Structure formats: structure tokens, C-alpha cells
Amino acid sequence: MLIAFNKPYGVLCKFTPEPGRSTLADHIRIPRVHPAGRLDHDSEGLLLLTDDGPLQARITEPRHKLPKVYWAQVEGLVTEEALARLRQGVDLGDFTTRPAEAQRIDEPPDLWSRDPPIRYRARIPTSWVELTLREGRNRQVRRMTARVGFPTLRLVRVRIGRIGLEGLAPGSWREVTIPP
User: Fold this and answer.
1) Is 110 among the residues known to form the active site?
2) Residues with Cβ < 8 Å from 138, sequence gap 6 or more?
3) How would you class 166 by CB atoms within 10 Å of its CB: exposed for 0-12, middle for 13-18, buried for 19 or more?
4) How would CATH label the architecture of 1-64+163-180?
5) Does domain 67-160 have CATH number 3.40.50.720?
6) What is the pLDDT of residues 108-154, one digit of tens each?
7) Catalytic one among 26, 40, 51, 52?
8) Which of 16, 54, 59, 87 is buried deepest, with most CB atoms within 10 A?
């Protein structure tokens, strides 16, 4: 079984209850499924869950190079120089990222509003970047955009392999029959 879930902002990627915090158990009541990867509580979007161990490994292990697509709203107007650095790989101190596909995009027109909304600063514009990674380390996208001078304000994963968020409202899920 493979489930595509649109994880809302603030939901922890675990089923174990945590007082005062929302977890996957608040949204998905299917026994024996586990997240294939994770998203931080302050990130949103596509999370895959499965009861199939080998499939879970295929989704999460970087050696399989499964592309993961993110939309990042960043502080400031992202430059071509910053995008070029993202495309080359970014030295984050403890490791250097693999090269990413990176492009500036318009604000996604069908993107749901976030609760709570991102901070608004009248004197500092924001822009959107689409990043495709084939690895996924802790807070990697946020660290990458900050390192090139454009901190992430909002992060949404929209695709893993061939599976996307199309038609999934935040907090909803569907069973997927196509492997990623």
C-alpha cells in the first residue's frame, strides 16, 4: 500500500502522540503504514506512507536518486547567481549538497493559504524558487537557500518521483497505485 498525504504546516511526521502537537495519527488511521521520509513540522506538502519496507527504502535512500520537487518562498528577490550556486551544489559546512535543479517561478496560483501565514515585511519582497533534489538531509532546502542569501519562509514539497499533490487538500490523503 502506498499513500500520498498532503501534510499541513505544524504536523509532526510521526504517529506517536505528543501532547499539544498534531501528528500523522490525527489525519491517517490506517494500521502499519510508516512515512517514507519526512517533512519538518514547519514544512508542508507531499509525504508518502507505506507498509512496504523495500518500497519505503526505494523512496528514501539517496542512492536511488528519486527526484523530490519543492517550492520555496524565499526572503528577497532571488538572483540568477544564487540559482547557479544551487545548481552547482552548496557547501553547508557538514556536507556539500548534490547539484540541484533550481529555477525561479511565479507564486503558485493554486497554492492553499498557510495557517499561520508567513510573516509579512513591507520593505522586504519575497520570491519563489522550484528546487529538485535527489537527496534529502535534515532541513536541506532551508539550509541551501539561506547559504546562498535567500532564507526560506515557506516550504512545500509538491512531487516525489511521479507522484504529485494534484487534487489533495492539506490534511487529506489518497491511495496511490503507481509506484514513484
Assistant:
1) no
2) none
3) exposed
4) 2-Layer Sandwich (3.30)
5) no
6) 998 999 988 887 777 889 999 999 999 888 899 999 999 999 999 99
7) 40
8) 59
